Amino acid sequence: MPMIRKAGIVLAAITLLPLAACGSSDSGGSSGDTGANVTGRGPFSYVQGKDNSNVVRPLIKKWNADPANKDQQATFIEQSADANAQLEDLKQHFLAKSTDYDVVDVDVVWTAEFAANGWLEPLKGDFALDTSSYIPATVDSATYSDTLYAAPQTTDGGILYYRKDLFPTPPATWDEMTAACPKADQAGIDCYAGQFQKYEGLTVNVAEAINTNGGTIVGPDGSTPTVDSPEAAAGLQRLVDGFETGVIPSDAIQFLETESLNAFETGNLAFMRNWPYAYSLLSGDAGSKVKNTFGMAPLPGVEGNPGASSLGGHNMGISAYSEVKASAFDFVKFMTSEETEKFY
């Protein structure tokens, strides 16, 4: 694929996807049953994507073992590892007004769409949470139209994973990383990869590149495009140049998190941008070829600017169609308690 076309794909992704996440939804779903069944109790389900770090099952076991919860047992419904598949699964259940999903794991970029469609129970009144001890940005990610719709649970930031057996000191800048690529080539492996397929991962990687160069995508009002600045263009150009020079392998244009993780875990990549979840897999998988030879560092910056990371993460919401919202809310408080968060 010509580089000009790649740049066009990236530019289209960053100008459309973030705005869609912040605006109203075109899903066409009818409003949910907010305000109904708020005193309902009984067994319930918790729906989340693949539990890569194996923390959900022990926590559900702990919840279910508590005698106080004998009549409100939790069942874990594990989705796939693919974010798009998780989103479509949730939307299908919401559009069907299904009562099968009670507590749902909400990616930070889904909050606005779910709330606008009335698919989540507002966390106010008897369901109000004290968010004073939370990082403000995580509360913002769970808020729509000044109302909290989900409880901040886990927060993510982009991390540079690197081969410390080849590079004892991680690169602090993009130029330092590209200068190290010949050593990766000598070792017979690719240099750097992130997530560049046309999905939310591309938006994240491009946003990080633009922000690192001092650019922005939208203004402070969250809707005015600012992506036509010289700084934004420079950040975008770094990625295009990466593909042109081979710093980023050509097949990385199809990488999601799993593909970049596999390339690094099998020893075929020197540097990888990914989320914190990758740590447990790289260090714990029996087939990992880098479990003892990888390190973690901040994303590389450019001269004068440190590397910028997009805020990722997941929040816990209660389906508007749940018939046991009181039990669901108790579980949300349990899963977001200080004790539970330390377990993560």
What does this structure look like?
It is a single chain. By secondary structure, the protein is an alpha/beta fold. It folds into two domains: 31-154 and 314-343, Periplasmic binding protein-like II (D-Maltodextrin-Binding Protein, domain 2); 159-309, Periplasmic binding protein-like II (D-Maltodextrin-Binding Protein, domain 2, 3-Layer(aba) Sandwich). The chain is built from twelve helices and eleven strands. It has helices spanning 3-22, 56-65, 83-95, 111-116, 136-141, 174-186, 200-212, 230-245, 257-265, 278-284, 325-335, 338-343, and strands at residues 44-48, 74-78, 103-107, 143-144, 147-148, 151-157, 159-163, 190-193, 269-274, 294-297, 311-318. A five-stranded mixed β-sheet has the order 2-1-3-11-6, with helices on both faces. A four-stranded mixed β-sheet has the order 8-9-7-10, sandwiched between helices. Strand 1, helix 2 and strand 2 form a beta-alpha-beta unit. Helix 1 (3-22) packs across helix 8 (230-245) and helix 7 crosses helix 8 (230-245). The chain is globular and about 65 Å long.
Number of domains: 2
Instruction: Report the radius of gyration as a whole number of Å.
Output: 21 Å
Widest sheet: strand ordering: 2-1-3-11-6
How much beta, percentage-wise? 15-25%
Query: How many strands, which pairing sense, and closed or not: the largest β-sheet?
Result: 5 strands, mixed
| Tally of alpha and pi helices | 12
Order of helix and strand elements from N to C terminus? HEHEHEHHEEEEHEHHHEHEEHH
Taking the alpha carbons of the first and last residues, their distance comes to 41 Å
Low-confidence stretches: 1-29
- Per DSSP E runs of 2 or more residues, the count of β-strands stands at 11
Give me the CATH architecture of the largest domain, please. Answer: 3-Layer(aba) Sandwich
Give the mean pLDDT: 90
Query: CATH topology of the largest domain, which one?
Result: D-Maltodextrin-Binding Protein, domain 2
Instruction: Look at the helices and sheets and give the structural class.
Output: alpha/beta
What is the helix fraction of residues, given as a range? Answer: 25-40%
Shape: globular
CATH superfamily of the largest domain: Periplasmic binding protein-like II
**Top-tier CATH class of the largest domain:** Alpha Beta
